[in-house]
Amino acid sequence: MSTRFNNVRYYFYSFIYDLALQWFYRPLVRRLIGAVNAQAGQRVLEIGVGTGITIPFYTGHKHVTGIDCSLPMLNLARKKAAQHPAVRIALHHAAAEDYSTAAGFEQVVFCNSLSVIDEPAQVLGAYYTGLPPGGSLYILNHFTAEHGPLRQLDKLLTPVGKTLGFRSFFPLLPLLSPEMRPGLTVLAGGYWRIVRITKPLIAA
């Protein structure tokens, strides 16, 4: 999908994004970033920082770099960053597919962004490869259930999701390469999940 089209789409989303997500999403975001803050290491890369909904929850000992392909959302994130001067964050206009940004980060965060990426498994694998030993990917996203009515509902909603710019049918395990699966930890279960994928300290 073209960057120009995404910018037009996210321009309109930027007006309602925080309001739409705030009522149920804020506790999950707090828990996600709390887990990032608790892990050793200072350098964090957030993919798809959006309007900056995560920014207030980072602690000052982290050095955060946030990227997003949407300039309207990034401008809102910059305003949030200015309201939280204790958070050390640099914001850049870039796409998730810009793998050159991955080097040197100990944690990579996807907060409600993985299911809007064109090739999520490829992107996830690339950032995993760029992690140092002991580094982690953190993901907060909806993930399709392995079975049951919600799985069928996600399939039925696929055309709607495509129109809105995200994948409705989005199971987790097909996104993970065999080398990533041993490091998988589910930090919060349910339809919206927080997962951590940690790279081993010693290569298998």
Automatic annotation (TrEMBL):
UniProt keyword annotation of tRNA-binding present: no
Keyword Methyltransferase set for record: yes
Stretches that traverse the bilayer: none
Swiss-Prot/TrEMBL keywords: Methyltransferase, Transferase
UniProt GO BP: methylation
Pfam families: Methyltransf_25
Coiled-coil residue windows: none
Gene3D superfamilies registered for this protein in UniProt: Vaccinia Virus protein VP39
GO molecular function, one term: methyltransferase activity
Domain Methyltransferase: 44-135
Stored PANTHER family: METHYLTRANSFERASE LIKE 7A, METHYLTRANSFERASE LIKE 7B
Protein name: Class I SAM-dependent methyltransferase
Organism whose genome encodes this protein: Hymenobacter lucidus
